[in-house]
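Show me a record, fold above all:
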Amino acid sequence: MKILLLLFPLPFLLPFLLGTTSAPPADSPPVQDSQEPGQEEEVGPLEERMLVLKRGMRALRRGLKDPEKDATNLEIVAGMAVAVGEGKLLTPPMLEGIPQEKKEGFLLEYRKSMVSMQMELLKLELALLGGDRDAAKAAYEVLKEMEDAGHERFTQDG
């Protein structure tokens, strides 16, 4: 049984390790383009990754209530982790408005916040793998707080 548990996350980790994403499960909703309804302007690469997080948080808010959805929740968390991993390497658009002498500190703070989000996503994944509903919900709440704080600090309309 322990061997099975160790091998269980492997299908979810392979796309991340290989730098690709896996196909969504057959019962998942069809993939939509990266723009939210009503959004008319093009989004940049960082915004695309943030939309993955936004959609993932929305899906997890509902999905964490149902243990039957844990396999789907694990895929969502893995996709979010990929988006954060890619996003932390991108430059936030609001960097243009930061004075030159503060840019380095701003980027460092941004990168640290993204690494913290990756760590919290790993906690959520471990909780789901272990069947610990309370820990999964707690990790989700921390992620929600991080999302709100990140928007406030790192977006122009935050």
